[in-house]
Design goal:
about 220 residues, alpha/beta, six-stranded mixed beta sheet
Length: about 220
């Protein structure tokens, strides 16, 4: 199979635009907005409990474990599921009392707040396969050989399609204890989430970096 035949087969078989779809759908979790209390100046928190609010116990554990694993030295982080197997409604005061009793000075709560879908039209793409790959590089105008080989190539067009994306929006809020003051909040988004564990890992990295940068967790210098 020649070079041009190989490329033609790749595109016509559907693998070409399938690969394009895969590349476009690849994404990571992004922190789209955040806020920090400008008056907070107490330095890094010493002991923080992490709550991941989710109906699926396995997802809750995975998210809390990732968050705990990414909080750097200088702040002790504890997954809430190790303290409270189930988070029942109406037990707020009971939960808070235990946290204060055990010396927690911070509580971080993460929850999924929205799942949305969107459609994007991807127009056809026209490209040229040079008749000889040696002459396909730009600039192809610098010699007769290059230009002739380029224009003698075959022109192909990929099909149009509509790509559907799913976006998960996640809210994370950090409070101080025992006064329950909001000191940091953030909204994160993940396009086309495939794995709850991967999203939890990416989210934990983002939030830890933010909190360390603001001197809210970690060593006194604000670094892990």
């Amino acid at each position: 199979m020649s070079y041009s035949q190989g490329v033609k087969w790749f595109m016509r078989s559907g693998l070409g635009w399938s690969a394009a779809l895969l590349v476009m759908s690849c994404a990571t979790t992004q922190l789209t907005s955040s806020w920090k209390d400008p008056d907070y100046n107490r330095g890094p928190l010493k002991k923080v409990v992490v709550f991941a609010v989710h109906d699926d116990a396995a997802v809750r554990r995975a998210a809390e474990d990732q968050a705990v694993a990414h909080i750097p030295v200088g702040t002790q982080a504890v997954a809430s599921y190790t303290l409270f197997e189930k988070l029942a409604r109406g037990e707020r005061e009971k939960i808070k009392a235990r946290l204060i009793e055990e010396g927690f000075d911070g509580a971080m709560v993460t929850r999924l707040i929205e799942i949305s879908k969107s459609e994007t039209y991807v127009a056809p793409h026209t490209y040229t396969i040079p008749s000889d790959p040696r002459y396909g590089a730009v600039p192809h105008y610098n010699s007769f050989d290059n230009y002739y080989s380029y224009v003698q190539g075959e022109v192909h067009t990929t099909p149009e399609f509509v790509r559907e994306d799913t976006t998960a929006k996640i809210e994370t809020i950090l409070y101080t204890l025992p006064d329950s003051e909001l000191i940091w909040s953030g909204i994160s988004e993940r396009v086309n989430p495939r794995s709850a564990k991967k999203v939890a890992h990416e989210l934990a990295e983002l939030i830890a970096k933010e909190l360390v940068g603001h001197g809210i967790v970690g060593s006194a210098s604000g670094r892990p």
